[in-house]
Amino acid sequence: MATKSLKPIKGTPNAVSTQTSITALKMDPLPYGHDRAHTIETMKMVMGQMPRTELVEETSDMLRYVVSTRVMRFKDDVEFLFDDETRQIEFRSAARLGHSDFGVNRRRMEDVSERYRRLMK
User: Fold this and answer.
1) Residue 106 sits in which domain range?
2) Which candidate, 109, 93, 108, places its Cα nearest to that of 15?
3) Does 73 fall in a domain?
4) Sign (positive or negative) of CA dihedral 5, 22, 105, 18
5) For the segment 15-50, what is each residue's pLDDT rounded down to a tens digit?
6) Which of 88, 90, 104, 105 has most Cβ atoms within 10 angstroms of its Cβ?
7) pTM of the model
């Protein structure tokens, strides 16, 4: 069975993804916890701590959020794909507009990754 994919990022420096071949925009996927249900609940807990963050879609293997930036209220799309085959969380975070986000999406996902890892210990 083929692994599901996240929506590709455009290649502009206002996004990061675990599924891109662009080195500067790539991040490592996160490991599963005990099982998918526990892993999803943990990620929802992490994202629930993030300011200006709204869960807009949830399926059995994906969470989609919209995050508004602090100053200009630009919308960023954040997606998590829970892959049972690899037991990893693939993710992407991308600004809807513009070219550069001054590293906002990368810093956000580094923060999310760190919070997730702390909760999984």
Assistant:
1) 15-120
2) 93
3) yes
4) positive
5) 999 999 999 999 999 999 889 999 999 999 999 999
6) 105
7) 0.93
